[in-house]
Amino acid sequence: MKTFISQFKARFLKLAGFEYEHSISDVDKRLVSMVCDMLRRNKHSITKYLNWLFDEFLVNNPKFCPPTLRWACCRFVMDTFLYEHRKGAKGSK
After folding, report:
1. Distances from the Cα of 87 to the Cαs of 40, 80, 90, in angstroms?
2. pLDDT at 87
3. What dihedral angle (degrees, nearest 10) is formed by the CA atoms of 84, 26, 5, 76?
4. How far is Cα 19 from Cα 14, in angstroms, rounded to an integer?
5. Residues 6+ apart with CB under 8 A from 21
6. Under a CB-based contact definition with an 8 Å cutoff, are residues 72 and 8 in contact?
7. Prior bond to 66 cis, omega within 30?
8. Could you report the per-residue pLDDT of 36-92, keeping only the tens digit for each?
9. pTM value?
């Protein structure tokens, strides 16, 4: 969970040009934990997920910028990642 949050903050700074200053609530921590569990179960890394989020998804969907930690953990984003990285998917890595 700490890895996810620190990598998210670093990627946020690079994207937005300012630091992520939102407080991280217990709800946020629980959501991050759920995403980490989902990634582990599906054999994906935190780095792969965040690279996809910042380098692909947000580039193609700038209306979601700048993202919040809670938004990065929402079901829509997670499901989109899993869909785009399913076995045999066009462009899967």
Report:
1. 16, 14, 9
2. 80
3. 10
4. 9
5. none
6. yes
7. yes
8. 999 999 999 999 999 999 999 999 999 999 999 999 999 999 999 999 999 854 444
9. 0.90
Angle between helices 26-41 and 75-84 (to 10 degrees): 20
Q: Measured between alpha carbons, how far is 17 from 80 in angstroms, rounded to an integer?
A: 26
Domain ranges of the chain: 2-84
CB 58 within 8 A of CB 64: yes
Name the one residue in this structure whose structure tokens are 């991050």.
Answer: 32
pLDDT in tens, 15-24: 999 999 999 9
Task: Report residue 42 as tokens.
Answer: 């599906």
